[in-house]
Amino acid sequence: MDRPETNARRAIISAFNRLVLATRRTRPPVKQLLREAGVARSTLYSHFNDRDSLLLEAMGGPLSVVADAAVGAADEQRLVKLLEHFWDQRRGAQDILIGPLARRVVRELGQLIAARDTALNRNDALRIADSLLGFIRLWISGETPSSAAILARKMIASAAAQRAALA
Hints:
This protein has two domains: about 5-55, Arc Repressor Mutant, subunit A, CATH 1.10.10; about 60-165. It has helices spanning about 5-25, 30-35, 40-45, 50-60, 60-70, 75-90, 90-95, 100-115, 120-140, 150-165. By secondary structure, the chain is mostly helical. It is globular and about 50 Å long. About 75% of the residues lie in helices and about 0% in strands.
């Protein structure tokens, strides 16, 4: 998320998001992505190192919803909708939140939390990020059955308790 936004970059992210939703694959084929975005391979790789970097950037919107919950600025309904989406797409969500990308997702969320609450140091923001994603990981794997609304409230309460303990 360090690079400036360009039309090509937006087109790639938008195409990626459409393909992920349409195909339910967290890593759509590059050829299909290039065709959907209307860009050349060189353009894709001038903006992103690999598909995982693109995936992480595309997760910026959903992670922002979780980051807002982490700092007490949650729109609970948006969080519930996000959790429902993760549930509906749980195979892909598990790939992202439990698979090899999990640590990078925690770091991305930690950065978003730290940017929103400058009183938190980086390590504390990472702890809160890992905790909140832990709720989601357990939920989508079926370890902690509950509704998305109950999970959202628990995540918000947990983040508030963690921030209070760190203050």
